[in-house]
Amino acid sequence: TKLKVTMVAWDRYDATVITAVNNFLLKVWNSSTGQLLHSLAGHDDEVFVLEAHPFDQRIVLSAGHDGNIFVWDIDKGTKIRNYFNMIEGQGHGAVFDCKFSPDGQHFACTDSHGHLLLFGFGCNKYYEKIPDQMFFHTDYRPLIRDANNYVLDEQTQQAPHLMPPPFLVDVDGNPHPTRFQRLVPGRENCKDEQLIPQLGYVANGDGEVVEQVIGQQTNDQDESILDGMIRELQREQDLRLINEGETPPNPPLNRSHSVNGG
Question: Domain of life of the organism in this record (predicted)?
Fold first, then answer.
C-alpha cells in the first residue's frame, strides 16, 4: 500500500511536526533537522484530526475514523489518555474534529452521528440541565441573496446575524420548554409569552382535538406557528429600531435566487 499523509500539525512552539499516515501511525519529527523522533501506534483507522495543546508543547491530541481519541506526550512518545466513542446500539462514531479550550483544560469533539463530545477537568453538572438534542430553529432554513449578492434569511429578509435570537428545538424541529429557551443568549429575560410553549392543541381532519407540538402546526397560510412567532419578533425588533432612530435593514431587491441554508 502506498503510504499517504492524511494530516499534519505543529506543536505549540513549532519544535516538532506531527504527521498522520494512512497506515494508522503518527510520526513525530524534529522540525529543524527532519529527524524522526517517535512513531505512535494506537489508531486502527485513518486519522484526520491532529490538535496541539494551546500552551504545553508536549501534548498533542489525535482522533480518527476508528472512534478513538488519544492524548499523547510527544516528548516521551507515550500515550497519556485514550477515549473510545462508542454509541449504544450503533457501534462507534468516527471523530471528525477536535479543538482545545483556550485554557487547555477541556476539549470538544464532533462525530459522524452529529454528537458534540466534551472532555475535561471538573464537574459536568453545568451540562446536566440541557437536553440531549439541541438545534436552532433557524438551522437549515432557506437563504436568499439580494441584488448585492449578500445572504439574507428568506422568511424575514434580514441578514442572519441581525435576526432575533433563535429558538432551541430537538432533532425533529419540536421546540424545547421555556426553561431551555432562556439558555439562548438574548432570551434570558424573555416573558413566557415570548417563548415557545411545548405543546398546543389542534383539530385534525375528523374534528378531534389532538395534542401536537407547536413547531409542527401551521396557520391558514401554511406557515408554521413557530415561523409566525419568528416573523412577529422580527417586526417588533424593526419597530424598536425605528423608535430608537435607526433604520432597519432594507429588504432585498432581487428574490429570484435562493439557496439552502446550512
Answer: Eukaryota
3-state secondary structure of 6: strand
pTM as predicted: 0.58
Tell the burial category of 165 from Cβ atoms under 10 Å away from its Cβ (0-12, 13-18, 19+).
middle
Considering the segment(s) 5-120 as one domain, its CATH architecture is 7 Propeller (2.130)
Cα–Cα dist 198/176, whole Å: 6
Q: Bridge partners of 195?
A: none
Output the CA–CA distances (angstroms, integers) from residue 110 to 24, 74, 95, 174, 251, in the order listed. Answer: 20, 24, 6, 23, 36
Distance from chain centroid for Cα 1: 36
- Distance from C-alpha of 86 to C-alpha of 91, rounded to nearest angstrom: 6
Write out the E strands in 132-244. 135-136, 143-145, 151-153, 168-169, 199-203, 209-213
CB within 8 Å of 165: residues ≥ 6 apart? 184, 185, 186, 187
Question: Residues, the chain, total?
Answer: 262
CA end-to-end distance (rounded Å), the chain:
37
Q: What are phi and psi of 3, to 5 degrees?
A: -75, 140
Q: Where are the domains of the chain?
A: 5-120, 130-246
pLDDT band at 201 (very low <50, low <70, confident <90, very high): very low
Cell of 140: 437549515
Average pLDDT, whole number, for the chain? Answer: 79
Q: How far apart are CA 25 and CA 39, in angstroms?
A: 6
CB burial of 77-95 (b: ≥16 within 10 Å; e: otherwise) equals eeeeeebebeeeeeebbbb
